Structure formats: C-alpha cells, structure tokens
Amino acid sequence: RVARFGNIPIVSLDWFEDSNIAGLLKPAQGDYLIESAIKSEKRRKRLRRLVKEFTIQRELEAFEKECQELEKLLFSDRYQIHRDFTGFAYNIILVRLDLLRNTSKRCILKLCSTHEMPKGYTCLLIHHAPGKLPETTYLTNKRCNWFTAWAAFEKAFKDKTKLDWDDRLKRKIDDEAAFVYARPKMGEPVGFMVDDGFPSII
Q1: pLDDT per residue as tens digits for the range 120-133
Q2: Cα separation of 15 and 24, whole Å?
Q3: DSSP 3-state assignment of 104?
Q4: Distance of alpha carbon 139 from alpha carbon 142, whole angstroms
Q5: How many CA atoms lie within 13 A of 111 on its CB side?
Q6: Predicted model pTM
Q7: How far apart are the C-alpha atoms of 115 and 113, rounded to whole Å?
Q8: Which tens digit of pLDDT belongs to each residue from 95-114?
C-alpha cells in the first residue's frame, strides 16, 4: 500500500492508544513513527553496547593496575586480589580517627590468590600513618593454602576492629583503639556471610 499510494506514515500502537485517550488523532510524526522507533532502538542498542564495552575496559584497566600494585608488594606477577563467588574483593580498608590530633590511621588488609591453578594464597596488611611511609606486614608465606590465609585474614581483621569478620556489618565496637571497617558502597558486593554454621566459601 505504501508503494501504491506513496508516503504513508507507518505508526506504532502508541499512536492509537494516545489518540484514543486524547479523543482525537494525534499527528503521525516523531516517536510515533515505526521508522523513528526502529532508529531509536538501534541507538539504544548501540549505546548499551558502548556502555558495556566501556565498563569491561574500565574493569580490565582496574584489574591490571591491581596486579601491578601486588607485583610491587609481593615481588611476583602471579597474584590478584581474591574475590569470592559474590564478586566481593578481599581488599578492605580499616580506619581509626584521632579527633584530638585531627588525624587518621589507615590499614589495608589484602587477601590474595594466584592466577593459575592450583590456587596459592597469601595475606598482608599495609599500615598508613601520618608523616610516615606505608609499612607492609606479611601475615603468611606466599602460596600458602586457603585455610592458613583465611585464618590470618580473620585474625588481622579482629585484632584491628575487635569484631569477628562475620559481624562486620552487624554492629560497632565502642573502643577508641578499634579501627572501623569501611563498608562497600551501596549496591556493591559485601562478601559471603557465614550463617547457621556453614563454613566460609573459598
């Protein structure tokens, strides 16, 4: 019919619905045209693809930077920050404020795993204090097993925060000497939570 009668606009169902609601025929133009809708959908798909590609690129760049930092700390290019099945990265920040001196101390607790299988693990703690260079404490040997690294991680967390790791989101300790766990931002993984006696997941 379009070929026979010439330029007949082909509209979407939204045109009929909006026209019925308004009680009169709306102009068959703009977003009501199927051609415009197809172009808009193509633009949306292209935008989604670009956003996905950009996100993947940013994640790859962040991962590469993370591995480069670990290479300097561990003198090996075999390690990455360990992530559990929820996507949570065991690279946590602990902070203690000194209100009288208006300063803060910061610790970064890292649980690392090797890229290759079988997995090897290691755990380390980096201390940041005002006016001092960062100080790294290696809590385990390199390429130790999971249970040794995890025990060191949990112990270091409790020593600093006075909290068990599995209570990290539940309560705070009223202790000026305790470090405070910097929780993930809203919407980000918070890590596996042990419940009903189930063991921690590798």
Answers
A1: 999 999 999 888 89
A2: 11
A3: strand
A4: 10
A5: 23
A6: 0.66
A7: 7
A8: 988 767 777 899 999 999 99
